[in-house]
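Listing 4. Sequential folding, example run.
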Amino acid sequence: MSEAGRVPSPATPLVVAAAAPEERKGKEPEREKLPPIVSAGAGATAGLDRGAKGQISTFSSFISAVSPKKEAAENRSSPAHLIFPNIKNVRDQPPISLDVRQKQRISMDASSSEVKAPVLPECILPIQPKTLKDFQEGVEKVKSSGDWKAVHDFYLTTFDSFPELNAAFKKDVTASFNTIEDSGINAKFVNAVYDTLINTPQDIQKTVLKGIINSLLREWKGPRTKDDLRAYFILLQNPQFNNTSTYVIYAHLLRQIATLVEADHHFLVHWFKKQYSRLSQKRFKQLVERLLQFISLRLFPAKPEEFPPITKCSWWIPSAAKVLALLNTANNLVLPPLIPYTDFYNSTLDHIDLMEEYHTWQNFGNSHRFSFCQYPFVISIAAKKIIIQRDSEQQMINIARQSLVDKVSRRQRPDMNMLFLNMKVRRTHLVSDSLDELTRKRADLKKKLKVTFVGEAGLDMGGLTKEWFLLLIRQIFHPDYGMFTYHKDSHCHWFSSFKCDNYSEFRLVGILMGLAVYNSITLDIRFPPCCYKKLLSPPIIPSDQNIPVGICSVTVDDLCQIMPELAHGLSELLSHEGNVEEDFYSTFQVFQEEFGIIKSYNLKPGGDKISVTNQNRKEYVQLYTDFLLNKSIYKQFAAFYYGFHSVCASNALMLLRPEEVEILVCGSPDLDMYALQKSTQYDGYAKTDLTIKYFWDVVLGFPLDLQKKLLHFTTGSDRVPVGGMADLNFKISKNETSTNWLPVAHTCFNQLCLPPYKSKKDLKQKLIIGISNSEGFGLE
């Protein structure tokens, strides 16, 4: 695959701007520079029909197609059951195209706060005298009189056209369209109108939908005015679109938004960020959930007859995905995000053919074929793990097959061992032997891993591999080894900045992490989130060896995750109200101790002679943070980066966010002991035995810290695999020993050996002693 055909890192939101019609492109004046949104090739058709190039129907054909069904259902209670007008001679929308593959990752964080919008026709807005207070008073009068006429007239007028929408909801009708930071919309008024709409009579709700149809048709036919973006922004928030019978209208609204030009998308993104960060995160989540539900019900409709045939509306899902991408971008521009990134997951996608989506993305990423992999933020981590596992398995099969073919072509007898990455190591020389083996067998890294300990009988069925990982990680991360520094305040490891002649052992750690992901092994490693962000910078190894790797934009927040005290000191420097130069007496230097010797490093040329002042302190903090997290450990991290990617060099990795890489490597911190209870297997015990009942009564009553200690004691990690507790294959075996003995754990097999304690009190006491003193205890 060419460099231009690669996808940007999912750490950055993927926002796809559809190509505008040629006539619009020619009229747009030159704008201030914006960070690029991944642009699409003009004329590409994105559909889910897997290559079927059906006619894309016009808006009017959709309306007329559903009219008979709506007419038959007019007397139902649903607000969307109305007779749509039969509208003719409406021109088709420009087709939606998708092209999200790009070598460099795209970021909108650097968007200018002031962006010149295209010069569009002025629109004379009608006068709308109603205010929020007037509207609320009108609604209150309805409660006593039962007369909805005044409210009905308000909705009829407001939703009749885009100018009316602007007149009703703009804070200042005369305000010019000149800022990206504020939409100029009275959000409280919009929310009040929509909250009331849901509880109005059916004729009012039908009136609103008819008005939206007319508004969209006018916008479809005529030139765009400068206030139309506000109208789209308002209409997208309409809760009526929760109802499946409104999906035809909703789909065309989404399509018109999706086909806006890039600069318009930037405005919408920043408006979403501003409005929902100030007002209601709950409403933002509802907006996201509405779009996810739209996608789910189009994929798996409860009543297929409610929707047009998929061949005629293959653009529905691509349109919704693009609008979701705008919301995802807005969410990521806010710190902390408005909602967790996991709220963008669509669990329905766990039940589609994920590998077909992946291969479509691989093979047709720059052409007309739509794939959910182009919008990886909607794919759950569980689904991504399936893609990565299957992709890994396919790579293993291909490598093994090639080895077999090479052997046969040389007329040599095939050996089953050639199908595996066979590691033979001595326990007494674990690190050096592992490093030698991995160096010698670099070509076999993508084969299935099997481990043998020299001098020990045993067949590796998974237990020896896990033990090898456990022992090797413990030894490498031990403070005496000097490769990593453990920070007690943050409970995580970071790369030692000490210079050395050979960084091969850092490469070994990267290979270990890659092998763990490749072979679905969860490691007990504690790296800060910043590490995984660097690991995806870039997400693929650049072809040019001179391009730096593992370098990413870092902030004081990233430093706080590793060295909270130092980060706090730098934050105080930034917020200091006095004279920084006189009070701190610092220069652009960093001092570090290396083997008992204090060494100084300039943060910029001549830094030792440049004082930190109120004017340059932001630059000082940024350079200081960049030095600690990027420059001072560049060689160490570069070796680590190349080691990891030597195993995980797969396009599937590019679907992941840094947080998701961490979960794949280390597991999830969220424990569900009830799920563990349901999936536990027993050997020598039955789940109805008294000892087992005592055990679960005790464990389910443990505080979280003791539950984590139990998990660490029995599995070697206090985290849960991506697939949940069921993937642990946790087993409780009966230990026919004295009840005075403590429990024993076989961490390589996730097995707990439990003596048949006679009382709950005795079991609890012994179990707490065992799990609280588990470092080096009971490891077999």
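-- end of first protein; second protein begins --
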Amino acid sequence: MASMDGKREVCSPFIPRRNALRKTSAEIVSEARQSLRVQSTRRPFTPRDGHRQLFGKSYVRADRDSRPPSAFSLHAQNFDAPDSRPGSGTRLSPLDHKPKFPVLCDAEDPFKSFPKTPSAPLEVKKGPPGMRARLLRTGSLTALTPTEGHKQSDNKYGCKEQSYPSPGQKQLPAKRPPGTDKTEGRGGPHKPGPRRTASESRITQPGVDSGDGLTECTAGRKAEQGNRDITMSPEEDAESSVWNNMIAPRLQQLESVAAGGSEGSVDRLCDLCDGLRGTLAEADMLGRRCKRRSGILRTLFRLIDLDSAQLNLHIAELCLALCVSGNNLLNICKLIFQISRRESNDILFQNSSVIDSFLGILSNEDVSTSGEALLYCVGTLKFLSGNCAILRLLLEKNCVGAAQKLIQRLCTAADTDFTIAGHILVQLTATLRNLADHPDSRPLFISFSILSELCVVLSNHREDPDICTNVSRIYSKLSSYSECRLALAQTPNCYQLFLELLNKHHQKQDLVVRLLFTLGNLAAESDEARWRLFQCEGCVDSLLQLYDTYQRRDDSPHTQPRKGPPRAPPGTVQQDEDVLVKLVRVLANMCIHPAVGPALASNATCIRLLMETLELRCVQESEELLVNVAATINNLSFYREDSSVLRRSQLPMAKLMLKLVLSSSMDAMLEATRVYGNVSQSKNVRDFIMQNKVHQFVVTLLDSKSTEMCIAACGVLTNLAQDPPNRASLSGEGAIAKLVDCLRDFGPGDWQLVSQVCQALWNMIGCGPEKLLDTRERESLLKILTTYLDEEAALKWIEDDDVRDFHRACWEFEFLPVAQKLMKTLQPPDQTA
């Protein structure tokens, strides 16, 4: 370390040892605590949106006019009562061909019921006079829905008979396009027709002997059955019995209670809905297994106009259990969405099966046919996930797994569905952002590969700033945890993707700051992550260009003109500064890698921007930024290659650090002192420190109770003591006495600090003829060193074996060599011999 002829090797506490042949545990600890340190910072704050909307004020979607609304009116008339059309969500156009007379068709033999020649008459029994003529008269077989004004009555089978309008009402025209009316079975309006005679206004379905009327339960029977007796299968008979005895009475109760409108009717209607669902479940008639489900749906839809959130949620719950589709599924999702917009309604969802049904929709519904329904479904889950109790419920019900399935379908959606897929992803990523707040979500995000799936989303929707911002918020939350960082770091091309997004959306501050925070977390994880980021095409140039964009400069003539992309839109000083805090942290963590550090230290633009920040900012207003800049400079100052721009700028850097040392911020003092510990290896810097009396301030830091502050101060004193004139000045400031106090106070609890104290003492009292220690101080120091050099006495207070091994390594490799040299210097010559 030092010799009596004046030649010495100065030890810097901030330069870690790098020994490829043997790396001790003490060296590992030394690296963690010395100059090459990982920088941390606060996660960007995301304010909660107080308004429950699909797209809040913070969203910047380009298609504002075409995006689905959050507010709308919804009534019973918006629903399709029969719910019988396919769930395609698309109304088909009429076929372009010549109209033909409609004929009845048998499901088993489509040719069996075509009109036959007179030699092969229809296979029907003779009925009342005139029946045959009515059956064959064109246009007599109409299929009006219950909303067309017909009356209903119960027949002996418990089915609703449909009585058609009186002669004064309009009917369908005599001739129509082929088949039935295109709105048949959809609840759509029928075109008005000419007046009909009383004998033509009512027709009897063949096979029913209950007089005039067309029943719902026999509307689809074959034409060739004629009016012969109806035979029912055992299954049909059982269903009819359940309908008559259990379901129909409940529907009647629902209608009567709703009509009464008495106090407490809503609670009664909710109980009846629950009872109806229980009855259907027991009879195995949920889903689409109930042939008369259209009657149930009609009754439920009429109750929606009562405008009760509690009742509407029960109605929606039952409708989803009956597997509504198409327009009805969309309207049910809208209805539930409306309910969820009020935070006071959250409690209604906690004991409801709606969440289970919605998660099923997420897992199974097709984007092309049910895109808008999925949008309102996911929007509802986004609102509900803001409630802590429901958030836990969503995790228990595997919302993360359902979200993964939906993400995969959205990422493979057709180009025609790209817009609606983007709208859904805005809601879905916001939901996942809320779920990421709960610690139980992290294992689920990892097991379902959500982090890598979201990278695919970013790649497909990189032009969409809202989706990118939501995903960046998820990453910024989860990348704070090591297991999530590892999962994200293993995602191919994530680093390159983040850099591309930073370039594309450099003006969107809330996106930029979160991507930088995530990159900083990844670079803090391992050397592999630092190298992969550095190896990305244009990495350093992109980061420095972004640095230049967000660097706030005064409009003085001394400021160099800006280059690169246009400045970000004016935001608050704090917003721009937060970007720089996160960006500088990325640089600080990257340069820990032995190949990345020298490249950054040799980059003139990088060093210029760092020094410019120190010059433009003050500690009182930009404390965190300046602390991060100082930490980055400290890491870069470790690399002393000839190409290092920082090495040639050590004196200007030392001058800029002066305002940090003299500030009231302890963090700023600490980082500036660490920088001085490295740059004070230069003679010019040491002279600057002594001339500006910085050494006096450094000596006072030895009184600090912080081990980090003491070890940084010892590093500066170690280098200053290299020059003989400085030793007397340091001793005059009481440096030696304070170092001995540090040795005594910190003792065996921190062998690295104790070893650095010994190094500073060695440089002061062991390298020249000066007598800087009196007899009392010498004896006190000898006594302390004698105690510490006894390994058994020094480590006996440690009980845990692992901790003991750690301290033994520090004692052996850090403390012992320098303490023995110092001990030899203090002993009289006769004892040394």
